[in-house]
Structure prediction request, 450 residues.
Amino acid sequence: MDGAAGEASDAALRVTFDPRLKLEFHGSKVTSDAGLLPFRDLDDALGLTDLAGEALADTRTGQNSRHTLIAQLRQSVFGRLAGYEDVNDADRLAHDPALRWIVGGRAVTHNAASTSQMGRFETEVLTQEANLSALADLSGRWIDRVHARRPVKGIVLDMDSSVSPTYGEQEGSAYNGHFGCTCYHPLFVFNQFGDLERCALRSGNAHSAEGWRELLEPVVARYRTTMKRRYFRADAAFAGPEVYAFLEAEDYGYVIRLPANAVLQRKIAHLLTRPVRRPPHEVRRVYASFRYQAQTWSRSRRVVAKVEWHPGELYPRVGFLVTNLCRPPERVVACYNGRGTAEQWIREGKNAVRWTRLSCRSMQANAVRLQLHALAYNLANFFRTLVLPDEIERWSLTTLREKVVKIGAKVIAHARYTVFQMAEVAVPCHLFRRMLALIDDLRPRQVARC
Prediction:
């Protein structure tokens, strides 16, 4: 076979089960990722990757700057969006016609960056302290661009940690007894739309709440003057007086799970007696609300308790929430239950953009790659929330990649333009047309002069 570009090919291959079939390979004339093109259109409409030119510093000199910084950032982000977790596939993707048009610049007429070039970009340029800090801020700046096109009245922040298994001698990896593996232990902050506001890579043996302030403060600062209704939810790992005091000072409503103890159990002892009569066939729930002050707290706070009696179970399931909301107990519990969507978004990040693929030896380089995965995740989520028509708006990010991104196309180049002949299987033409129309509606409009 004549190289990855596939401009020339040997005799067609054949399969045995039916002699009428022939197999041909045309690398630069066929792409399996043509569905990335509307994602690039969304990027252009919102001006997302262009923000990188303002935030990131290009430290390369001489021939190393053959591809621009923005072009290589696009190659990193869109490659991950298509399911290529790291730079190992860059040599082949450098010839892919869809990716070349997405990267833009000289990649359109030549090739995109090679594996070695992308490796240097991610492990040398982006690992600079200033660039890594700017990269961590970029997700929030992207979200601000989206909110400018889709104004929201309030914000709900969910904080949670996750596991990223490691293999080999990777800096910062450690055994975590909760997850039962050697890993990193990243921390995430999402909003109610599933956008990843900010993330940080931590050592595998870090406590779930370690570094919460450094991660949360920049997000809180961004919304300090733009949002009137602000809420925060988290599990019991974040139940601490420093977290409560910080959120109260920032005027955030919060609901945080509280670990059970003997004092809390005594407060609801009257609800823990098994009801007398035949057990019901449905779950029975009762609630309580009371004031409580732990020894480490400077003052008392409201605690909401939920007691559930399940059919066939001898003892009830009991949960406690600490909150500053004035809602009825049922609504406080319902608000906290919405936090489960954050766990769903973490799973989507693992499955769709595979942000657990952190294979560098250096922790700094792995931190860069986590931020690049975060940008790819956010771009996919923006597409889902802003661009998908009503009938497919509930698609997961994995489905979005498999049915939209992975559209095959035959590429025909003319003197003045290039045609992508898209396969019409999972996404028919009329849906694709509506997606492009919704993207066009997001572009800023010129105000006509009178």
In short: Residues 363-386 form the longest helix (24 residues). The radius of gyration is 26 Å.
